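ok, trying the design again with the full structure, not the truncated one.
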């Protein structure tokens, strides 16, 4: 496909740069064997080739391939349906591109219909599967608690530059590709609108996902790897423009060589675990930059580690300072206890935004069993699954981690029903009781829940205390 735009030599250079100078190497060699991005890279290549060929020499077989490739791309990853912008906005070469495009579509309307039919056939198996399994033709299967699309606004700046996994921060070579897009207007105008608008929409959709770093263990942002085929065109145009000026050849060559070496070295760091998979901060990145090992104390600079299991435990207490948020003895109530009723299902508690709790990126909240608190500003709720004991195997929630909703928009540590995980058992000697959400459910149903605790204890508590542990500045 690149030979349509560049000579053999430039094509070889671009292939080498994509493989050695980007995260394509890490994804295809180590991390992408079971992911969709590598086959999507191939499908995008075939789609782009078919698009260029059909606009140069319209043929039925090319139209069939074009529609089938767009359909398969959408089948593999529905959000990649934006790939349709490439053939729709691609123009014939020469002046008056939009007029030529309209004339081409009218003259070969039958081929356009064939391409559309091929797209529907290729993309339809998913629709039939959804209908067979769920009864709906369209089914939204991304149901991870706290994850979803935030289109207005998306996380574009984080996606591009955040130290956690910013695309341009860890794959800076592709910045030359972005610089080459304006040059397409003069050099390859037939590709300008297709590449520009496709990239803008694709970047918007990808960065709108609340988990914009896409979790997992990939190096840099794997979500853009499939479209490197498209970005190779403006990358080549930019490099040609640079090397056309003799005064820039050596400096540019050295800079590009250093970017390739940086990518290879950081890929090696990722493979050795020096560069973590998704907990990187600016401070940690600075501490390990250019190093072949992790300096002493650098791990403390990482983001908080999330448990991959169903439990979270507060263990590294030396890094935290604690203070009491609230303490209620209920001495002002009859028999000095708080009674749960259907009308009053919650104990008192602090009503605070995250910024009022700590200036750090996370904190641990603790309270004895039988009481607790929740606030929407923290993105958490007390309790566990309906009719199920907490995942920790105990009816207590001793510590619950909450994180900055601005930096971590997804809800952290959530069960399948969107409620937070329970932690380990409380130390001996704590007041008996159950977490307040389960107590609320027991009262609402008018029956006690199982276990050794009496129904009266489940309906009332005598003390409620919440504390917070935050990392030391």
């Amino acid at each position: 496909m690149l030979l349509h735009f560049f000579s053999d030599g430039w094509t070889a250079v671009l292939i080498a740069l994509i493989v050695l100078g980007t995260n394509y190497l890490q994804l295809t060699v180590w991390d992408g064997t079971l992911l969709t991005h590598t086959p999507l890279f191939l499908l995008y290549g075939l789609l782009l080739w078919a698009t260029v060929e059909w606009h140069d020499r319209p043929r039925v077989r090319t139209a069939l391939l074009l529609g089938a490739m767009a359909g398969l791309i959408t089948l593999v990853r529905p959000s990649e349906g934006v790939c349709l912008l490439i053939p729709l906005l691609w123009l014939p070469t020469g002046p008056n591109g939009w007029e030529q495009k309209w004339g081409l579509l009218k003259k070969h309307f039958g081929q356009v219909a064939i391409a559309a039919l091929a797209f529907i056939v290729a993309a339809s198996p998913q629709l039939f599967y959804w209908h067979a399994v769920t009864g709906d033709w369209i089914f939204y299967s991304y149901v991870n608690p706290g994850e979803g699309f935030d289109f207005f606004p998306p996380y574009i700046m984080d996606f591009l530059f955040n130290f956690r996994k910013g695309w341009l921060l860890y794959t800076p070579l592709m910045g030359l590709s972005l610089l080459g897009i304006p040059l397409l207007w003069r050099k390859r105008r037939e590709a300008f609108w297709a590449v520009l608008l496709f990239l803008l929409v694709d970047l918007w959709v990808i960065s709108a996902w609340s988990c914009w770093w896409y979790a997992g263990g990939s190096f840099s942002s794997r979500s853009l790897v499939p479209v490197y085929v498209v970005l190779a065109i403006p990358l080549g145009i930019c490099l040609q423009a640079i090397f056309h000026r003799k005064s820039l050849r050596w400096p540019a060559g050295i800079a590009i060589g250093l970017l390739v070496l940086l990518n290879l070295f950081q890929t090696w760091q990722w493979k050795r675990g020096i560069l973590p998979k998704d907990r990187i901060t600016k401070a940690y990145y600075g501490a390990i930059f250019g190093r072949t090992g992790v300096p002493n104390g650098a791990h403390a600079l990482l983001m908080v580690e999330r448990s991959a299991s169903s439990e979270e435990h507060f263990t590294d207490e030396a890094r935290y300072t604690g203070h009491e948020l609230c303490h209620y003895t209920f001495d002002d109530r009859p028999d000095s206890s708080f009674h749960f009723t259907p009308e009053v299902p919650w104990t008192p508690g602090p009503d605070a935004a995250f910024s009022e709790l700590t200036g750090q990126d996370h904190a641990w909240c603790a309270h004895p069993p039988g009481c607790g608190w929740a606030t929407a500003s923290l993105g958490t709720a007390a309790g566990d699954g309906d009719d199920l004991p907490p995942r920790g195997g105990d009816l207590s929630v001793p510590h619950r981690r909450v994180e900055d909703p601005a930096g971590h928009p997804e809800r952290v540590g959530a069960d399948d029903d969107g409620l937070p995980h329970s932690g380990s058992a409380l130390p001996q000697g704590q007041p008996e009781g159950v977490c307040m959400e389960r107590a609320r459910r027991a009262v609402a149903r008018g029956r006690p829940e199982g276990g050794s605790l009496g129904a009266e204890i489940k309906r009332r508590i005598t003390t409620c205390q919440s504390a917070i542990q935050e990392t030391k500045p």
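Keeping the full-length input from now on. Strands lie at 320-328, 338-339, 362-366, 399-403, 460-461, 464-471.
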